[in-house]
Design brief:
The chain is α/β, with parallel strands linked by helices. It is built from eight helices and seven strands; from the N terminus they run E-H-E-H-E-H-E-H-E-H-H-E-H-H-E. The protein has one domain: Rossmann fold, CATH 3.40.50.720. It has a seven-stranded parallel sheet, with helices on both faces. Strand 4, helix 4 and strand 5 form a beta-alpha-beta unit. It starts with 42 loop residues before the first strand and ends in a 10-residue tail after the last strand. It holds the Pfam family adh_short_C2.
């Protein structure tokens, strides 16, 4: 299956972006992807699960046997579409709308998921925001606070809320970014949060090792999601992903399988690690 795409330089006027209006649409799951029950009987909570990588993870988890709760901001149609995709796999999907910058909401979301499914086994901290600025002096205190609140504070909030329900063998998976390793001159605050996520993943993995709870991360490269046309101008969208060795952006389905692996028993001896689906870019760590 070819994943070559023409992004057409399309842009969107609202953030974090709407998958429903993307053309071409991101590839959520390969037609020939066959589930094998890797997550049978498990339940997962995924932030930013309405679209992009989060949607793809939700559908892959469902095909592998898991029920899924997805957290989203206000993209109701995208969330409903993801719910339909999960249910088409024969699994249950709970929609949780709210602002993950709020600790109160994060606790409520976890409580609702536990009430719905009776348990939680997998937490995917995935939601993020980014706001390009060419100069560090252009980053306002409000932008800085919002980016850190969404991209790293929420990871603490959800982890704290989920921990009482996680048992030995359960898993936390954090979404970081290739920018944590090679930086991004126009995404200074975003890249900083992604670096913090790497440190958080390693530290939390060590902290929870005695409980048998594994903590890992995925560091995607340039992936075709709603965040891209809603963030960058037309010219940058046209060139998106072409600076990788593969000369193209990746698709969400090329990333989601990393989460399946890390959530399953296949990764039973892995914790504190980061996987790098990034189109062939060599990074350390």
């Amino acid at each position: 299956m070819s994943f070559e795409i023409d992004t057409r330089g399309q842009t969107q006027s609202t953030r974090p972006g709407i998958e429903e209006i993307m053309d071409p649409a991101p590839v959520v799951i390969r037609e020939n992807y066959r589930g094998s029950g890797k997550l049978q009987g498990k339940t997962a909570l995924i932030t930013g699960g309405d679209s992009g990588i989060g949607r793809s993870v939700a559908v892959h988890f469902a095909r592998e046997g898991a029920d899924v709760a997805i957290v989203y901001l206000d993209e109701s149609q995208d969330a409903s579409d993801t719910k339909a995709m999960v249910e088409a796999e024969g699994k249950n999907c709970l929609l949780l709308r709210g602002d993950i910058r709020s600790e109160v909401f994060c606790k409520e979301a976890v409580s609702r998921a536990v009430n719905e499914f009776g348990k939680l086994n997998i937490l995917v901290n995935n939601a993020a925001e980014q706001h390009p600025k060419e100069n560090v002096t252009e980053i306002s205190p409000d932008q800085l606070n919002d980016t850190f609140a969404t991209n790293i504070f929420s990871f603490f909030y959800f982890t704290q809320a989920v921990l009482p329900y996680l048992d030995e063998g359960d898993s936390i998976i954090n979404t970081t970014s290739v920018t944590a390793y090679h930086g991004s001159p126009s995404l200074l605050d975003y890249s900083s949060t992604k670096g913090a996520i790497v440190a958080y993943t390693r530290s939390l993995a060590d902290n929870l090792a005695e409980k048998g709870i594994r903590v890992n991360a995925v560091a995607p490269g340039p992936i075709w999601t709603p965040l891209i046309p809603s963030t960058f101008d037309s010219e940058r969208v046209k060139q998106f992903g072409k600076d990788t060795p593969f000369k193209r952006p990746g698709q969400p389905c090329e990333v989601a399988t990393c989460y399946v692996f890390l959530a399953s028993e296949d990764a039973s001896y892995m914790s504190g690690q980061v996987l790098h689906p990034n189109g062939g870019q060599v990074v350390n760590g």
